[in-house]
Structure formats: structure tokens, C-alpha cells
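Q&A log
Question type: sequence-to-structure
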Amino acid sequence: MKDLNNINLSIAEPRLFGSLGALLPFLTGVFCIPLALGVAPEVAFSENNLALFSIGLSITSCLLIFIPYLFRWDWRAKYFGMSLLYVGSVGFLGVVPWLGVVLYSSIPLSMRVALFAAYSAAIIWWCRRFIIYYKHLFSEERLWRRIYTEEEDAIYYLQAEDQRLIDRKLKLGQVPPIAVFIFFMASAFLATPFATDIRVTTGIAFIHVFLTLAMVPIVLMCFGLAVRGYLIYYYYPWKLKYETGKDTFVIMAIRKLSSKQPD
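Response status: OK
Response body:
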């Protein structure tokens, strides 16, 4: 068994990384609570599903801060991968305002349905790119064996090699193009002078419309990374364990593999 504590960065050690990473969904939940309550102040807290979800996210995250140490997380992919799932939670800062507009605004139902469909389609399309990419990668043994190497005692996921394939070989963009960021951010700021009219038309505070627009590329990025994390740290390691009976561990840096590691 490789000495992964010696190979990998100490700051990324799953217990430390997992505990610190849990702060992301915690803070996301905290910020989403006033957004959820503000979009429908007339709705009781106990009946506001967005607020209940937000507070549930924060409470659950408090528990996740301690779990890595309680259960002695190591470099198994299923532990290391929690960090990317946590990144996905940041997307709720855009999803909660969007759902607030869909559920509680006074705009016509047909427009709300269209907004829901368009937003959902964009998220599905973006995340599906990662599913297609890794499905293609696993269809060619020479490719997937470059990122999952099998040894006698375990399978090792080579994070740096996977990143190299994404960036240089197969060129899959993990972040929306800068033009997408500019378009949606500009749309949100250009709508600001009409904040009063938008509030009257929609029946909700302008901040929710602003965040719905401005956060679109952030939502795509965060959810896309979460889907990628699920695939590389959970789905494919599970398939490999089913076939080989071996757990998958994470190696972050290829350059250190050449040095002899103790068994």
C-alpha cells in the first residue's frame, strides 16, 4: 500500500479537507435562509420549503464538520470526493432565489413554467457534458487506465492525470466560458435601474431576480463540478470495486509516483 500521506498534500488530507469543506454548505445554508424567507414573507416558516431546506442544509453541515475525524477518513475516493460535493452546494445561492421566483412571484404561471424549464434544461445540459465525457473515457481502456491504475492491493485514481486529460487531451471545459459570466452578470446589473418596476411586476424583492440572473454561471459551474466529483469519486470507483473487489484511493500528484513507496 502506498504511503499516501507522504505522496499527497497534507492540507488536502481528507479529515482536514472534509471538515473545512463542510463550511461551504453550512455558510450556503445560512445565506439562503434570509433569501428563502424574504421571497415570501407572508408564508410561515414551517410552510416555506425553501427556508426549511436551507436550515436543514446548515444543520446537516454542522454534523459533517466532525464526521471525518469521528470515522477516521483516509485517502479513499469516497472520502476525498466529498470536497467536490460540498462545492456543489454553493450553487444553491442561485437556485433558491430562482425557485423563489418560480414558486412565489406574481408573474403569469406560463412564464414561471418556462423559466423553470429553461433553467433546469441549462443545468441538465451542462452536467450531462461530464457524464458523456467520462462515459467516452471509460469506453476506451487505454484512457481510463491512465487515471485509474490497478495494483495488487488497491486501485489508485490519479487526479493530476485526469486533469491533464480534461485540459489538454480531450479539452472539456469545467467552467462556463467567460462570455457566459459577462452576459449574465451584465444582464443582472443592467436590470438594476428597473428594480422598482421589476418588484412591482413580480411581487418579490429585486435581489431575488438579480441573483437568479447573476448566479446562472456559478450554478452551472458548481453543479457541474459536483456531478464530476460523483462520477470520479463514487460511481466509477464503485464499478471498479464491483469488478475487482478493491477500493479506490486518491493520488493527487503524478510527479511523486516515480519515488519508491513503502508497501
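Response note: The first helix runs from residue 4 to 7.
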